[in-house]
Design goal:
Layout: H1 8-11, H2 36-72, H3 74-88, H4 92-103, H5 107-133, H6 137-144, H7 149-185, H8 197-203, H9 213-240
């Protein structure tokens, strides 16, 4: 397609279900004549990468800090808990916008902005579970038999709380994908030259009256992906949480 072509409608080819649509471009093309299906597939890699990496780093930070704070308590617990409370006072999206405005658009900057506050929920979950489990009889028995604190945490307590962390991580992955799409929609996430679902939705706003598929199809892709991840998280919760099992 000639980018200098003056006829906008010639570049905006509709999807196959429209009257003039064809299977050459099954989901149509955007204002620059680029195939939307190809950009959707490429943008899925961006969304999944951001979701997996940001959640993995958040889990790692939250698991370490929550374990130390919940088991040992003391001044360290007080400092980290107050920091977590401070971060919770800021709305996630507003906080991420501020961080991205300071760092600038970019993949790694986006991961950093999302994990800067994303670890807080994992920290609170692990800390609460650790406080509850450290008073159980099996932990007291391990102490009596001479196990070290490291062995008690790694072999006794963590295996009993890790399933809750996995379930929360799966559910939060969908949230991170929405945050990435929101930041890209505002022009603060993935750079414009890289196909991302949020920026694709933003680019289609100028064509809503003549080519609504440019925005709606990437938006539907976001909805389907997040819904699928949430359903997976609910299934993992039903499988891993013994309290939900019915004899």
């Amino acid at each position: 397609y000639d980018p200098t072509q003056g006829d906008l409608r010639a570049r905006l080819e509709p999807p196959f279900w429209y009257n003039e649509g064809t299977w050459v471009h099954p989901l149509g093309t955007d204002g620059l004549g680029r195939d939307i299906l190809t950009r959707i597939i490429y943008g899925a890699r961006i969304s999944l990468s951001v979701g997996v990496l940001s959640v993995a780093i958040s889990v790692l930070i939250g698991l370490i800090l929550g374990t130390l704070a919940g088991y040992y308590r003391g001044r360290f617990d007080g400092i980290v808990s107050r920091l977590a409370d401070l971060l919770l006072a800021f709305p996630f999206l507003i906080f991420a916008i501020g961080v991205m405005a300071f760092l600038g658009p970019g993949f790694m900057n986006l991961i950093l902005a999302l994990t800067f506050k994303g670890w807080v929920e994992f920290f609170r979950l692990v800390r609460g579970e650790m406080l509850a489990e450290k008073t159980q009889e099996y932990v007291e028995a391990a102490k009596v038999t001479g196990h070290s604190n490291t062995a008690i945490i790694g072999k006794e307590i963590l295996p009993n709380i890790i399933q809750s962390v996995f379930v929360l991580a799966t559910l939060r992955m969908g949230w991170m994908i929405i945050m990435e799409a929101s930041l890209s929609f505002l022009g603060l996430g993935i750079p414009p030259q890289i196909p991302a679902w949020g920026s694709m939705v933003a680019a289609g706003r100028d064509y809503m009256l003549v080519a609504p598929w440019v925005s709606t199809i990437p938006g539907l892709a976001i909805v389907l992906l997040v819904l699928s991840i949430n359903v997976l998280g609910e299934g993992l919760r039903d499988i891993l949480d013994p309290r939900l099992k019915i004899d």
